[in-house]
Write a structure and sequence with these properties.
three-stranded antiparallel sheet; single chain; 3 strands; 47% helix
């Protein structure tokens, strides 16, 4: 199981919806199960997925994540801060 940390719950909820519309099932991790601003999506990689499936998931995520951050007026730096990660 992998968790993609997204920050605000609104970003995670919208990403979950967009990925589902693209054919990918993910599971939300939002407050109160996780701390505020540490929401994310959980996904599982199994033998039933091809490398192309995983690549499409990551490509879709990479395309949608910046859009969602702009829509929610949140930045990648704020996501890093929320998860106590060093700047990349």
């Amino acid at each position: 199981i992998f968790c993609l940390g997204l920050g605000p719950a609104a970003v995670a909820e919208k990403m979950c919806k967009r990925l589902l519309e693209a054919g990918f099932y993910t599971n939300l991790a939002v407050p109160p199960a996780v701390p505020r601003l540490r929401s994310g999506l959980r996904t599982t990689v199994t033998l039933h997925q091809s490398l192309d499936d995983i690549d499409r998931l990551l490509t879709t995520f990479a395309e949608e994540f910046p859009k969602l951050l702009r829509e929610e007026n949140f930045t990648r730096d704020q996501v890093r801060e929320s998860f106590a990660l060093d700047a990349a």
